[in-house]
Amino acid sequence: MNKIRLAKFKAFREEVSIVLENSKNLLLYGENGAGKTSIYESLKVAFFKERMESGLTTQTPEDLQQLKD
Predict the structure, then answer these.
(1) pLDDT confidence of residue 27
(2) Mean pLDDT of the 12-26 span
(3) 15-34 burial string, b = 16+ CB within 10 Å, else e?
(4) Is 10 in contact with 42 (CB distance < 8 Å)?
(5) How many CA atoms lie within 13 Å of 44's alpha carbon, on the beta-carbon side?
(6) What is the dihedral angle through the alpha carbons of 35, 37, 43, 44, rounded to the nearest 10 degrees?
(7) How far is CA 44 from CA 17, 34, in A?
(8) What are the residues whose beta carbons fall under 8 Å from the beta carbon of 42, sequence distance 6 or more?
(9) Which candidate, 48, 45, 1, 47, places its Cα nearest to that of 24?
């Protein structure tokens, strides 16, 4: 993945692009209400859309692991 582009999704009404450099990590930081969770939710929808639509679960494997901890 080289870029994340969001438009008309939760906190992002206007189009926003986040270019991912040649790095394995992404750090999101900012004030409350800045849209960090919206970025996470957009990735969740992009990668788990079929699972969410089928009604299996809206939780990712990472979400489930956090519940166990």
Answers:
(1) 87
(2) 85
(3) eeeeeeeeeeeeeeeeeeee
(4) yes
(5) 16
(6) -150
(7) 17, 18
(8) 4, 6, 9, 10, 12
(9) 1
